[in-house]
Known about the structure:
CATH topology: TIM Barrel
Helix content: 25-40%
Order of helices and strands: EEEEEHEHEEHEHEHEHEHEHHH
CATH superfamily: Metal-dependent hydrolases
Strand order of the largest sheet: 8-9-10-11-12-13
Shape: globular
CATH architecture: Alpha-Beta Barrel
CATH class: Alpha Beta
Distance between the termini: 7 Å
Radius of gyration: 18 Å
Number of strands: 13
Amino acid sequence: MKKVHTVRGPIDPDQMGFTHTHEHILCDARMTHRTDPPTRGAYMLLDDHERAVSELKKYKDLGGGSMVELTTPAWGRDIKILKRISEDSGVHIVATAGFYTWPFIPLQVDEHPITQLADDLIVELTQGADGAEATAGILKSAIHFDRIGGVEEKCLRAVARASIATGAAITTHTAGNRHQEIPGGNVGMQHVRILREEGVSLDRLVVGHTDEHPEIEVLSELAELGCYVQFDVLKKTHYMLDLTRAKLTREMIRRGHLNRILLGTDRCRQVELYEENGGVGYTYILETFIDMLKTEGVSSAEINQICCVNPGEMLAFG
């Protein structure tokens, strides 16, 4: 039977409960490898382990069950610490193998063949990572530019081969630089093309950040191909209003794509997470966005499918 591979070990998909499929619990944007780090005010930085536990407990108390933590190894992932945070908070955590965007890809990756990169990812998914016996449970490809190429394509092809070998899903950062024009609003279709070349089944692909620059026809086409469409920057209203995201969700359901939708909030800054800094924590979907969905006519059963059933089906492999 396929399992969801959490940092505390494998569980059945129906044990996940309410799940955010794109979050960060530990991350450090100072760990750049190809450019200078961003200005201090722009840091994506979460490194307070005790605070992580307290924020996750708030989520747990409101009905949260699991989180997919999408920080990659060269961006601050530490599975040993994530395991302790999971144990102390009671929230299941799925860790990530793979690569973040170009600035955060280690320079030595340039020298390694795709086969070696894929083999390393397979080890993290099946044996252990970060010196822990616990494994990662999902793969990640992230694109910095408006097209996939160079070392990011190399990493993507390694991720594809690791997915084929293990069955693990591939989640993606697809927006590129938001100041560039990307046909369709993200590079999801470019991911589709390359993953098809590698032989990956598209029901293993999560197209992320689709609610930054959404085009409903493209989102619908991705879902028809079998991809998961992930609205995962909720409350980041500099991209678009959450009411619009709720309407997009309702429209995707109307078009028959209920089982292809995932939700998250991509908390990666203290100003997004910590209440005293103006943040709304990990509880925003449970406290606010669900009511928006219901106002748009999304039923409780449909919300359960999106937030509880779909994540387990996407994450299960082995």
